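User: Please predict the structure of the protein below. I'd like the answer in structure-token form so I can feed it into my own downstream comparison script.

Assistant: Understood. Taking the following sequence of 196 residues as input:
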Amino acid sequence: MFETWIFYCFAAVLLVSGLLVITARNPVHGVLFLVLAFFTAAGIWLLLRAEFLAITLVVVYVGAVMVLFLFVVMMLDINVERVREGFWRNLPLALLVGGIMVIEMVFVLLGRIWGAVPAPTLANYSNTKALGRVLYTQYAYAFEIAAVLLLVAIIAAIALTLRKRKDSRSQDPSEQVKARREERVQLVSMKAETEK
């Protein structure tokens, strides 16, 4: 009973934070709400005994990808009004996709209510070991393609943030190494002042 109550609390926080990701006016706030959504999804996965996936979600998405998103959103000058122009145009497609996902979740929940029982597991069963066996044998190529896509996304994000800006100041290390003390400091001899 307590575990079910925690599940519904996490699910409510996940739905609210997902809604706030879409409706947040500030892109930085949207990214932070997405971090909250990832943390609550990881909590739900822990309740479902998928510990490896929960830890991976926190480490990979919250620890790496969301930090990268946050830096990109904060470093790029995003015109929020221009981004919001396509909201009403894309709303029907978004509602269609959301409706399909809701119908799928209803079928999953009804299947569980109507008596679909998961297969029993052995006492020494490890979901991490089973996931690794399937991931690195049956889905090895898909895993490698996903890794290459993530690498390309990281390189693209870095390339976007390294553009030239007029107001940015940079230092040239080779010029700093060439500097000599005589060029930087000038000693001036002055007469001592005396009180009158």
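That's the full token string. The mean pLDDT is 81.
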